[in-house]
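Internal QA ticket QA-208
Title: Verify multi-chain structure generation after dependency bump
Assignee: T.L.

Test input:
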Amino acid sequence: MTGKDILMALGSIDRKYIQEAEFEVPEKGNRKRLLAATILIGIVMLAGCGLVLCS
Amino acid sequence: MDLYWARDEDAIRQTDIAYGKKLYILANKILQHQEDAQQCVNDTYWNAWEMIPPHTPNHFFAFLAKLCRKQAFDRAEQVPLAKELDPCAPKDRTDTDLSRLLNLFLGSISRENRLIFLRRYWYLDTIPEIAQRFGCSEHRVKSCLNRTRGRLQTFLQKEGVCL
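Actual output:
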């Protein structure tokens, strides 16, 4: 078999994958958004702790 | 779909309006020949007309694209892109078995990797086209494809396929 056989065998994969690849794109920046949210929560918590300690 | 079931020939025209351009692009990427690509698209419509009814595809575009892609590969003498997949090609295996394994493999990888892999090897998109579509660098697309091909090799070997 050769690479062409793989390309041809891909022709028989589940149609949901074909449809998915045609009409969808990966969600971008999810990791970045999650990281930013985590950092923000960390800062708020630190600030909160600081305020409690100062008072 | 109703038009096909009613045997209304307008079904072909409507299909052409909705999907003709996409199918032509797909066929032309495989064949690199405009007239042959258009002939492929026409044959696809004819096949769809013959198959519906009784067949009722859930994903109509995928159904048409599959037919079109098969037509194009049957006509194509060589596909340069195939070289990228040569290292993943089993030494001996039947097509049916390979398709089953590919289905399993696609279900086992991340959605993002699957989308990029299929844009490259199902729709035969170029690297710049994929990068533009997904809003990432060409380098990222190349490394993703490289990793996914490596995973495919490993997966096939684990399934007992001799590469």
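Spot checks passed. Chain B has a mean pLDDT of 89.
Status: verified.
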